[in-house]
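RESIDUES AND SHAPES:
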Amino acid sequence: MEGKVKVEIDLGKYISVELPAEEAERLIRHLTERLGYESQDASEALRYIRNFDAFYEIAKKKFKDYLVPPKSMNDMIRGTVLVDRLKLIKDGEKRVVVTFDRRVPLDEVLAALKDLGYEAEVVRREL
């Protein structure tokens, strides 16, 4: 799939990207390859996306917008956490907002999106 995508950077310097579920899965897999490590949170995030309907229902039952995959203490110490949180959206199609850990470099996210055929527009959210 190709197209334009917004890459949002919030006040806390978290990078977020909204994509169709299949493309979000491809992005996470591609980033783990580019960065050279796969963390527990990335594996769990992929599991959430693959089982979208089940985790969407769980999130709605608990009145939660975001799902936060568990993070290994070793990954946090090494700085290899990839996914901070996910937001699952159903509005005719399955979409996922992937919010990356602060330590994931913006240039790596942009390069991964470019590799997948996306043109990224960086938007910084201000007060």
Notes: The CA atoms of residues 7 and 17 lie 5 Å apart. Residues 21-35 form the longest helix (15 residues).
